[in-house]
User: Fold this.
Amino acid sequence: MSTLTTIGFDADDTLWENEHFFRLTEAHFSELLADYAEPEILASRLLEAEKRNLAHYGFGIKGFTLSMIETAIEITDGKVPGDTIGRIVAAGREMLSHPVNTLPHVHETLEALTASHTLVLITKGDLFDQERKLAQSGLGDFFNAVEIVSDKSPSTYATAFARHGDGPDRAMMVGNSLRSDVLPAIEAGGWGTYVPHELTWDYERAEEPGNVPRFTKIETLAELRPLIERLKG
Amino acid sequence: MSTLTTIGFDADDTLWENEHFFRLTEAHFSELLADYAEPEILASRLLEAEKRNLAHYGFGIKGFTLSMIETAIEITDGKVPGDTIGRIVAAGREMLSHPVNTLPHVHETLEALTASHTLVLITKGDLFDQERKLAQSGLGDFFNAVEIVSDKSPSTYATAFARHGDGPDRAMMVGNSLRSDVLPAIEAGGWGTYVPHELTWDYERAEEPGNVPRFTKIETLAELRPLIERLKG
Assistant:
């Protein structure tokens, strides 16, 4: 078996909290439109709008804000007051300055692994927002490279691990999304390590693969270094 | 004098039309709010909102759309109808699928230069939107690398030209923005070639430098290859 030289990390909900802030904003959105729709209906219409708009906006908070505005207009038949839209815009902007809370075991895991491996941050979302969060996290120096991408497909990983490492065959991707982090990295020929987060956006859900040797599920990042040690053996 | 090995190109309004679509959308925005404000007042309030929001949204169409919405709410004291906001959202989304019209001399200039130089596309804006435009332009294969960045400072150019070429000292940046393309590339130690476009966003304006040997202004990209030939001599 080839030796692992390169480790890719997802950012949102792998290194720091993210979905938490989307849920808070969605709860606020739901309150703002409480006179017009039940929370469940609103949530399902918003998710529809988000999925439909991915092809236009890509991933990230600005697209999410525009999808909230669109949903507010749709669900009220255009009757939503301008002030309410203003509050939605403000809620979106607040998300763009939310604090960056790194998750447990992240700092010490990256600090230890950067001594022995090439570390690459591979994340999607708004370019500007991801750069801000990386800067505020204080984790930037642990990474040899940062790739902010518009989508995460097998070819994304093939390209990133060829550019910054020794190809996907000697690389592992670590993240909380089976759909975006784990499965496409394995399809590209790499290892895929799944670290579930209690909050995960519906879009990112997928089935865990069955008997796939390069797939591992761990509970927290504390298990990552022992896993990598075992792979050496 | 060191030899030029690497050429960076800006994208919007250097390789293809861009500001044109912003102006069309702004005219549409102005019509939608004609009952509330004069076009000049609206334009100036929108520009204020855009500049203020750069720190939150960065550059690009999604941020521009959110700034239009915010301006519509402000200028009507929150009275703008939801339907009108819906039209603004739709106008922003249309921009994200506008056709990519490459400018004169672009194709043959890139085709010729890629044989002798390392070509790097360096652009800001929405990641997803810039990738779409590059794909639709058919120019992607002429570039050795693409950098979609959140801002263009001297250190942006120092980093990009070190990564993809032989450092800024042996690199030239070509673009229609003095503020973002030309001046910071010269400050980083490179050549800066200014190709003005008849439409330029207010934010990108700056004074032309006086007696700076590495600065050149050309009228169209047709003059770029002769300029590069002269530099060799």
Summary: Chain B has a mean pLDDT of 94. Chain B has two domains: 6-17+100-232, 19-95. The two ends of chain B are 10 Å apart (CA to CA).
